[in-house]
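hey m, so remember when u said the tokens were messed up on ur end? i reran from scratch. heres the input so u can diff it against urs
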Amino acid sequence: MNKVVNLGLIQMSCTADVQVNFEKTLDYIKDAAARGAQVICTQELFKSLYFCQSENPGQFDLAEEVSQDSPTVQTLRKLAKDLQIVLIASLFEKRALGLYHNTAIVIDADGELLGKYRKMHIPDDPHYYEKFYFTPGDLGYKVFHTQYADIGVLICWDQWFPETARLLALQGAEIICIPTAIGYSQLEEGPTYAQAWQIVQRGHAVANACFLAAVNRVGFEADPSIALPASQGHPSGVGPNRESGIEFWGQSFVTDPDGSIVKLASKDQEEIVICPINLNMIEETKKLYSFPYRDRRIDSYQDLLKLYSD
């Protein structure tokens, strides 16, 4: 018996207007559901521009409470219930004054908030100054048992670490969903790094015999701390400097347990990806290949608990 689930990935650009971004995302979710999507995932921090390009205390005003009754969550819960969809949504969580997380929530098709995942790995690189904003997650790696599938969630930087996907697979994750905001600041660097980004996640799917969906944003977002004067061509006197910012490369995709890309979005266009997947493939794969579980030598992995083996 086929166990087909339709995934929906929302790939879009964002503006400085949080409400516009939110309403656009809600419209895209409705469109995806109308096209048959049952599990829908947003990109990372979909309500705003990617504000982590610079360290600005004023950006903490974007954070919000993330709870059963908070306004954004209530809106998303109602939408999930009305559309009978599972929804994975990425939010900037204000846990307490001075304590913030990069958080994804999972809402079941009956509108129940199943829980949240807080991003565990926090980068601190040029244009990605996330350590200024986010405290590392403290909820561990979780699998959410939804009406359509058992779903594990990671967020962006988490996706580079093989241990994260393995811990979700050991809990029975059938699909790993990864809201993402990733791109490049110099165009010539893009293709190679984008390929590496895709390859590592395809490897997670193979090594753990599961499906994986990565959802990225598109468009250029200037570093808000840098601007160009009118003399350099911007009519308003101040404008984005394309030499300093992030060109988000899109290419949201779904990969199957064989590592094959079954759906791939464009590099530079807003897009709703609808991708049917057959979860029976997971069982078939695990019967054919023993490396996900049977042949693991857990007695030999002690050094994984060290930062580095000298």
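this time it looks ok to me. The chain has five helices and 19 strands. if urs says something different then somethings off w ur setup not the seq
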